[in-house]
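Sample intake — Enoyl-CoA hydratase domain-containing protein 3, mitochondrial
Collected from: Phaetusa simplex
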Amino acid sequence: GFYRNIVLNNPRKRNALSLAMLQSLREDLLHDVKSKELRVIIISAEGPVFCSGHDLKELSSEDDVKYHSQVFEICAEVMTLIQKLPVPVIAKVNGLATAAGCQLVASCDIAVASEKSQFATPGVNIGLFCSTPAVALGRSLPRKVALEMLFTGEPLSAQEALMHGLISKVVPEDKLEEETMKISHKICESSKSVLALGKATFYRQMTQDLDTAYKTTTQVMADNLNLRDGQEGIEAFIQKRKPVWSH
C-alpha cells in the first residue's frame, strides 16, 4: 500500500484556508479514497506557517452573509470528512497552526509536529471568536486548556500541545519526515479493511455512553472476526507467520 501526501502550498498567503483551498483540500482527501492501495493520508505544508486559518479577506463585509456561511460550512465539512475517511490521516506540522489551521491539526487522527511548531486560536484578538475551531479543540483538549487558548489567543508550544494531547509526537525539525514515515509504514503493514472498521468504530463509540459503547464495540469485534483479514491474522499468529492481507 502507499500513502498520499497532501501539501498546503500557498506559503505567501500563510496557507490560509480560503474557499478555493478548502475545496481543493476536500477534493484531495476524497480522491480515489476507496483505492485498495491507499493506506494513509499525510497533510503537510510549505513555508514557516503550517496553516493560518481562514482567509480574513474573504470574511470582510464586502462579501455577503451567504458567502461567509459557505466558507464555514465547507470548512466544517472538511474537518468532519477527515474522521469519516476509511484511512488514517496524519498531520505533519512544521510551523505555526492558528485558528482553523489549529482546528485542522485537532481534526486529524494523528499529529506529528516539529519542536518549533506552535498552536493558537487567536480569533478573539480580532473580534472573531474561534467558535468553529473550538469544536475540534474542545474534543481534543481538556476544557480549561481549550478555553484558555480561546479566551487569550496565546499560543501553545509544541511541548505544551503534546502534554495536553493536541498532538501525538514532538520531534526535532530534521526528524519530522522520518518520524511521520515511520508511523505511516507501520500503518501500511496492517489490513486496510480492519483499520477502516476500527477507525469508524472509534469515532462512533467516543460519542456514546459507556454501556452503549461496549454494545457497539462488542458487535464490531464479532464483525471483525468475520472479516477475511480477521481470520487470516489470527491464523497467522497461531502459526507464527506473517499475515497475508486480502489487499
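Post-analysis note: The chain has a mean pLDDT of 96.
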